[in-house]
Amino acid sequence: MDSRLDVFAALGLNDGEAHILRNAGGVITDDVIRSLAVSQRRLGTRKVMLIHHTDCGMLTLTDDGFRAELQESTGVAPAFAIESFTDTEANVAQSILRVRRSAFIPYRDEVRGFVYDVDDHRLREVAVAQE
Asked: 7-57+87-126 has which fold?
């Protein structure tokens, strides 16, 4: 979701060479799994690359605090999970495992995760052993 990362430029890609899914925190939600399933099962993709970033806004809130803020502001408790986190690398690792464990994703052997440093513009891979 962060506009500081131009994914195509950072990865040296041209238009049409990758499907880019973005959301707050890079969270692997049911909707992300749905989109990945369509991407792989109908559009021919085989690899998944997850990129989270340093200085993420999701590090600055808590699930309970943000849920209460939304409910106070709107009068309605959100039905969606907030999924804030305190450790970016641990969040990437969790996201990798969520994709790898989804029965809806047929090509799970090439799921990799990275942290993009917004200061030096480098990608650092987060390794998670195959289960």
From this structure: Beta-carbonic Anhydrase; Chain A (3.40.1050)
